[in-house]
Amino acid sequence: MAYQLPHETSTKRKFNDYAAASTARMRHNEILFNSSLKTPIQFFVRMFSGGKTLVIQAYSSDTVASVHWKIHSITGIRPIRSTSAVPAMEQRLIYRGKQLELSQTLLECGVQNDDTLQLMSDLNLVIHDLCNCNDDTDINANVTRMTKMLTDFLANTPKDGADGSEEYLQMFIYFCVPAALVKLYISPSVIKKQAAHGCVCQFIDNCRILFTDPTTVYRQFAPIFFEFCTILRGAAGVDDTLYIFCRSSLAAMMKGNVHDVKHVLRLQDIFPFVHELATRLSHALELSVQLAEFIQLSESDVREFIQFMHRVKCAIRRQKAFGSLVSFPSLMQDEAGNERSEIKGVHHVFCDLLEKSELCLKELERQLGLVNIGRGEPIIGYNCKILFTDPTTVYRQFAPIFFEFCTNLRGAVGVDDTLYIFCRSSLAAMMKRNVHDVKHVLRLQDIFPFVHELATRLSHALELSVQLAEFIQLSEIDVREFIQFMHRVKCAIRRQKAFGSLVSFPSLMQDEAGNERSEIKGMHHVFCDLLEKSELCLKELERQLGLVNIGRGEPIIGCWSQYLLILKELESISKLYKGLNEMFWEKMRQRRVALCFLIDASRREAQERGALRDAHL
Questions:
Q1: Are the CB atoms for 196 and 184 separated by under 8 Å?
Q2: Is 458 contained in some domain?
C-alpha cells in the first residue's frame, strides 16, 4: 500500500465530500424541476372578441397547444383551420405582449397562478382572406369583419398607459397588420383599395377619440403610425393621399408636452419626414424667386415641418456630447454617435431654407422698390393677413409663428428693435374678440410678458408726466397693443374656474390657479401700478386746472384720448378681481373734475380730427 502524506489524504477527502454534495444538489434540483412540471395552476384567458374571460386549469408541463384545445372544448373556437393551402393559425395566445408558441410549455412561458392570457384572432389572416377573395359579397363581408376586429382591438387596449398596453399594441405590428393593409390598399381592385383606405383612416381616428392624453397617444400609437408611413412611402409614394393623412396624423403627435418621452421614435425615424417637407418648401421658395411671383406655401407642409422639427430639436438638445449648443465642426467627428448624419442633415436643411428665404426677401424688397416708384404691387400669395381673412383661422394658424418671431427677436435684438415691434404689433392685432374661444393656441404665460412690457412703458410715461408736471404724450401704438393683448388675458382669467366669476386676490396666495397663478398675480400688480400712476396724473391735471381758473396758464397734455383709453381698460380689468371695481370708481370719484375734463377734451379732439379729415377729402 502506497504511503500518502497527511495533507494529500485531507485533500482527497475534501474532493470526495464536494463531489457527493454536488451530486446531491443536482438530484434535489431535478426532483424540484420534475415536481414543478406537474404543479397544477389556474389562470385566465381573455377573449379578444366580446371581452369574455375563461378560467383554465392545467399543469406547468402542459404545452400551449393543449391550452388551445382546452379553449376549443369550452368555446368551440378552433385554433387551426385547414384550407386547400397550408394550415394557418386562426387564434393566438398572447402573454405579456408576446405570442406563445404551440410547442412551448406553460413553465417555459413563465405562466403562473392567476396570470391572464389573451386570445386574439390573427388580424393578418383576415386581411389575407380579403386580398384573395374576388366575389363582391365576400369582399363586403370580410371588410365588415376586418373593421370590427380593428375596432375591438383598440377597445380592448389597456387605457391610460396601464401595464402591458404598449406590449399589447406591439402585436398590431407583430402581426404585420400595417403591411397587410397597405398591400390591400395598392391592389388593382378599387373596392379593396377603398376598404383599406377606410380601415386605416378609421383606425387612426379611433386612436384619437379613445385616447385623449397626448403623452399616452404618442407613446403607444406613434410606432404604429410610423409603420404605416414607412410602408406607404415605399409602396404608394409621398404624394399619395393616404400617406399624407398618416404623416399628418403622426406630425400632430409631436406636441410640446411629450418631448420628454424618449426612445419611442428616434431622430433617425423622424428626420426623413423633416427632409421630405423641407425639400418641398425649398422648391416652392426657389420657384418664387425664379418666377418673381411668390408661390403660396402649402399650409399643411409648413405646419407639419414645424411639428416634426419640435421633436428633432428636442432630440438634438439631448445630445450631451455637445453641451448646450451643437458645434458644427464637431459633427465631422464621431461625437454624436448614430445620430450624427441626421444632425448634419438638419444643419443642411437650415442653411438651404435660410438661403432660399433670404432670396425671397430680397425679391420682395425689389418688388417693394418698384411700388415706391409707382411700377406695380408686390405679388405675394402667402401673406397671411391678405390670404386668410377669417380672424379665427389667422389666430389659430399663425399666432404660434408670430409668437416665435417675437420671442426670438426679444432675446436677440431687444424690445426697442423695429422688427420686434412690427412682429409684436402683428401678434397683438390677432387678439380679436371673435377668437376668444380658441384655447391652447397661446397660453396666459405666453401673452403676459407682452402685457408686462407695454404696461411698464406706459407706467414710465405716466410717472414722467407727474414728475415733470408736463403730460407726456402716450404712444398710440403702446396703448392700442396693451388693450389688444389685455383682451386675451382677460379671456384667460375668466376661464379660471377655480375662482368662479371673479378672482379673489387672497386666493392667489394659494395654489388654486395652477400654472397661471403667477401671471394672474402679475396682472393684479399691473392694474394697481397703472391705476396709481393714472390717479397721480389726474391729480396733477386738477392742479393745473386750478391754475387755469385763476388765469395762470393752460393744462399741458399732448393727447387726451390715450389717457382716457388707459382708464377705460383699467376699469375693464377691475371687473376681473373682487373689490377692485369698487376701488377703481372710488378713486375716479375723487378725481371727477379731471376725469370730466379728459372726457370733454377727448370729444373735442375727435371732432377736430373729423373736421380735418373732411377738409382733406
A1: yes
A2: yes
Statement to judge: residues 476 and 557 lie in one domain = yes
In this structure, the answer to whether residues 184 and 292 fall within a common structural domain is no
Strands of 323-399, DSSP E: none
Same domain, 601 and 490: yes
Instruction: Please count the other Cβ atoms lying within 10 Å of the Cβ belonging to residue 17.
Output: 10
**One domain, residues 372 and 461:** no
The whole-number average pLDDT for the span 389-403 is 75
Q: Is residue 190 part of a domain?
A: yes
Same domain, 286 and 234: no
Query: Is 94 within a domain?
Result: yes
**Is 28 buried (19+), middle (13-18) or exposed (0-12) by CB count in 10 A?**
exposed
CB contact set of 99 (below 8 Å; sequence gap of 6+): 92, 93, 171, 174
Max Cα–Cα distance, the chain, nearest Å: 145
Q: In Å, how far are 3, 270, 487 from 6, measured between CA atoms?
A: 9, 74, 101
Please state, in angstroms and rounded to a whole number, the distance separating the CA atoms of residues 311 and 223: 14
The cell numbers describing 526, all together, are 399691473
Supply 454's cell numbers. 407695454
**Nearest of 175, 90, 53, 57 to residue 124 by alpha carbon:** 175
For residue 362, give the C-alpha cell: 430680397
How many domains is the chain built from? 4
Indicate whether this model's pTM tops 0.70: no
Q: Which of 361, 382, 403 is the last residue of a domain?
A: 382
Contact (CB, 8 A) for 544 and 553:
yes
Q: Is 330 left (phi over 0), alpha (psi -120 to 50) or beta?
A: alpha
For 507-525, the pLDDT digits (tens) are 555 554 455 778 888 888 9
Q: Do 533 and 459 contact (CB within 8 A), yes or no?
A: yes
**Confidence label for 450 from pLDDT (cuts 50, 70 and 90):** very high
Question: Do both 185 and 147 map to the same domain?
Answer: yes
Q: Do residues 60 and 38 lie in contact, with contact meaning Cβ atoms separated by under 8 Å?
A: yes
Distances (CA, A) of 344 to 267, 306, 313, 334: 12, 18, 13, 12
- pLDDT band at residue 103 using 50, 70 and 90 as cut-offs: confident
CA 581 – CA 255 distance, rounded (Å) = 40
Let me know whether 117 and 127 are in one domain. Answer: no
Q: Both 246 and 169 in a single domain?
A: yes
Spatial separation of the C-alpha atoms in residues 494 and 546, rounded to whole Å: 42
- In degrees rounded to 5, what are phi and psi of residue 138? -65, -40
Residue 64: CATH number of its domain: 3.10.20.90
Distances in whole angstroms, Cα of residue 159 to Cα of each of 163, 177, 611: 9, 21, 68
Distance of alpha carbon 496 from its chain centroid, rounded?
A: 22
d(CA 487, CA 206): 36
Q: Is residue 409 part of a domain?
A: no
The domain containing residue 94 runs over which residues? 38-121
- The DSSP letter of residue 295 is P
Q: What is the spatial distance between Cα 486 and Cα 483, in angstroms, rounded to a whole number?
A: 5
